[in-house]
């Protein structure tokens, strides 16, 4: 067992930083120091990839009520989200100015096509504004700032120097820039202008946790943390506590 936040950091070669994860089910902001998760400073957002796919379907159904788009397979909606959606750097400005929309069309079969306009950037917006889906908690940038504020002041700058993004929902074009912009704004607003978070957004961050786990398992000093089936069968459950404590 290992913290996904720690594994995400390991994938970039660091053991201290702030892991900002946005996957399929949930988002997390987790401070890690010297390889240990700071659980009391971890924040969770119940909006992520699956909720965004449902939201995109709802947006399409509302825009084209006669096309029965609610019957589109979930896989098709997910692929459409990955290929066409992006994060706006000025959501309200883009939303109210159609000239700034970047429409695209896609086929839904039977010779029909659908045009995506504002839906492209409205889809991922709930990660930054969960209220769009009826959630009371603030967006991911605010949770990331809260996580940094929960750790001792002497460690904040060090953790802010490695804000590591992980998970498939961080791959939207514009995601990194929007998160950085809003996180910096939070720091300025609350008198922490010297913090200056440094975001780490690797191209393969969609599978950062798996990559980090692979790297950690290959370390020589990790071998003592293995527990084989034969060891478990011989010693029973008490061995779990001996090995992993």
Topology:
Elements: H1 4-10, E1 17-22, E2 27-33, E3 36-37, E4 43-45, H2 49-63, H3 74-84, H4 91-95, E5 104-109, E6 112-116, H5 119-122, H6 140-150, H7 153-160, E7 163-166, H8 175-189, E8 199-200, H9 208-217, H10 229-235, H11 238-244
Parallel strand pairs: 1-7, 7-8
Antiparallel strand pairs: 1-2, 2-3, 2-4, 5-6
Helix pairs in contact: 1-9, 2-3, 6-8
The gist of it:
The protein has 245 residues and is an alpha/beta fold.
Give structural notes.
The chain has 245 residues and is an alpha/beta fold. It has eleven helices and eight strands. The chain has helices at 4-10, 49-63, 74-84, 91-95, 119-122, 140-150, 153-160, 175-189, 208-217, 229-235, 238-244, and strands spanning 17-22, 27-33, 36-37, 43-45, 104-109, 112-116, 163-166, 199-200. Strands 1, 2, 3, 4, 7 and 8 form a six-stranded mixed β-sheet that branches. A two-stranded antiparallel sheet has the order 5-6. Helix 6 packs across helix 8.
Give the number of DSSP strands. Answer: 8
Q: Give me the Rg, rounded.
A: 21 Å
Q: Could you describe the largest sheet, including whether it forms a barrel?
A: 6 strands, mixed
Number of helices: 11
Shape: globular
Q: Spell out the helices and strands N to C.
A: HEEEEHHHEEHHHEHEHHH
Mean pLDDT: 91
Overall structural class, as computed from helix and strand content, comes to alpha/beta
- Helix content percent band: 40-55%
